[in-house]
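Researcher: Structure for this, please.
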Amino acid sequence: MTDVLIKHMQSLLPNVAVSKDSILPFTRTQFVKKDELILKENELCDALYFVTKGCIYMYYEQNNTQQVIHFALENWWMTDYKTFATQSPAVYSIRAMEDSELIVMNRHQYEALLNQYPVVAVYFNKIHERAYGAALLKQKTYATTSKEEFYRYFKNTYPDIIARIPDPIFASYMQVSLEELIHLKQSGIS
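Model: Predicted structure, token format:
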């Protein structure tokens, strides 16, 4: 599984040789089943998760309902970054949307990896730049468009993602009811 991570690193840093042997001591593999809880809100957040197979999602609880805010598919990283940095209780929960294979790196391993191989910090910087940019674009798009336009944007921009996300989870992500999402899908938005 670390081969997938190495390929991803090389795709973002093509002129840098990062070997499996150099990364392996800083990671562990975790297999999770669909619906399995990976990180629970209010538990210590001490890990980064790289998805090599499957899909996971991040959410918080409000009024006994999951409010989905983020997804991670193959070659994506996920954690509660705010609390990972401070090793404090998580603000979000992370759950498997599908049976998934993850590469996991705890805070100590992450810092040791960056200290031993500083070039990996450039890789993580690229990851964080992309993620932050995408989050800001999602926020603007959601705030400045109708639900129909947002659904069209997401469907056209991320067709592979939307095909894999169950309707109840995507409805939560869009902050609409399941009925509203079904109506949007049936209205033939393309």
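Researcher: Any notable elements?
Model: The CA atoms of residues 52 and 74 lie 5 Å apart. Residues 2-118 form a domain with the Jelly Rolls fold (CATH 2.60.120.10).
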